[in-house]
Amino acid sequence: MIIGMYVGIATVGIFVWWYTMAETGDGHTLVTFEQLSTWSQCPNWKDFKVNNFVEGMDLSAAPCEYFT
């Protein structure tokens, strides 16, 4: 159980770090922790824009698809 908790915390921690702080050079948009934790409310955010870092995806029309 201890190892499972460690793996779970490490996985979620790396996920949060990548979305909020990782400037890895791949061009992904950094978001705040508040935005990440309330991503389901994205359609209500004003002026939310993301970089099109995934080839073949145009996120300018629907930036909330960044989280899905």
Brief characterization of the structure:
Helix content is 35%, strand content 0%. It is mainly α and 68 residues long. The longest helix is centred in the N-terminal third of the chain and has 19 residues, at 2-20.
What composes the largest sheet? none
- Tally of strands: 0
Please mark out the parts with pLDDT under 50 across 5 or more consecutive residues, or reply none. none
Count of helices?
Answer: 2
Helix content: 25-40%
What fraction of the residues are assigned to beta strands by DSSP?
under 5%
| Span of the ends, CA to CA | 30 Å
SSE pattern: HH
Count of folded domains? 1
Rg, nearest Å: 14 Å
- What sort of overall outline do the alpha carbons produce when their principal axes are compared? globular
- Based on secondary structure, the structural category is mainly alpha
Mean pLDDT: 86
What do you see in this structure?
This protein is an all-alpha fold. It has one domain (2-67). The chain has 2 helices and no strands. The protein has helices at 2-20, 33-37. It starts with a helix and ends in a 31-residue tail after the last helix. 3% of the residues are buried. The model has no long low-confidence stretch (mean pLDDT 86).
Task: Note the topology.
Blueprint: H1 2-20, H2 33-37
Features:
68 residues, mainly alpha, globular
